[in-house]
Predict the structure of lytic cellulose monooxygenase (C4-dehydrogenating).
Amino acid sequence: MQLTTAVLLLSASLASAHYTFPGLIFGGAVSADWQYVKMTTNKYSHGPVTDVTSSDMRCYKDPAAPIASTANVAAGSQVGFRVDTSISHPGPLLFYLAKVPSGRTAANWDGDGAVWFKIWENRPTITSSSISWPSGQTQVFVTIPSCIPAGEYLLRVEHIALHSAGSAGGAQLYLACGQINVTGGGSKAGTPLVSFPGAYKATDPGLLINIYWPIPTSYTNPGPKAMAAKFSKLKRTYFGNINYHTIYSQSHNIQQIRYAVLQQDQLQSNSSKYLSAYEKNT
C-alpha cells in the first residue's frame, strides 16, 4: 500500500511539472478546454513529445478525440492559449501558422507537408551566471499577422523545455494546435515554409544543449526564422538610433519588438512613437 501510494504521488508530481495548452483565448475570453484546440494525446499525462521525427510534432493530436470547433479571429488581433497548469521548465516559446489547403478544413486537417511558418519566438536572457527564459505563465499570446490572407489556419503553440537537453532526445516539446478562421488580412503568404516532422533535428543546437554548464553564451531557436515583417520604411526613419537598429536586427514581429523596447529603459520615452509607427506599416 505504501509503495502504491508513493508511485501515485510520484506520478502526480511528474504530471504537475508538465503542461498542456487546452484552451484558446480570443476576443478577451478563454474558451472551454479543447473547444477550439485539437485534443492532444497528453491531455491526461501532460507528457511531452521527445521524438522530433514523430508525426506528433504537428499537433500531438489524439486520433480518438472528438472534432474541435474553429474560432473566428481577426487578422492583427491577439490570440492565446491557456496553459494547464503553467510553463514550469526553462526554454523558448514559439508560434507557427499553417494555412488550410483548399478542400479541407481546420477541423479535418492535421497540418501535413511543408505548410508551417513561424510567426513568433522568444529569446533568452543570458548573463555570466545563467541563461533563462520567461516562466510560470498560465496564458501565452501571439498577434496574428495582419498581412496574411483570410481563411482557415492551424495555430501551433510550442514550448521547448531544455532542462534535460544535454543529450540527444532530451529536449521536451509541449505543443498544441488551435483551429482558427482569420478574417480581414492581406495578401502576403507566410514564409519560409517547413514541415513537422522535418523542421527539427535532435542534434540541432537549439535542442541539444546543456543550459547549466558551461553556461551558453548564445542560443539559437530551432526551425526557420519568423515570418519577416515590413521594415523598409522604419529602417529609413529610425536607423539613426543604434538601439532601434539592434532591436530590428534581432526581432521579427511586434511581440518581440514590444518586449525589446520595454526591456530597455533608455527607449521608454520613445516606445509609443516607435510601436505606433511599426504597427502602421505591418
Observations:
- The chain has a mean pLDDT of 84.
- Residues 18-227 form a domain with the Coagulation Factor XIII; Chain A, domain 1 fold (CATH 2.70.50.70).
- The two ends are 62 Å apart (CA to CA).
- The helical segments are 2-16, 56-59, 232-238, 242-250, 254-263, 271-280.
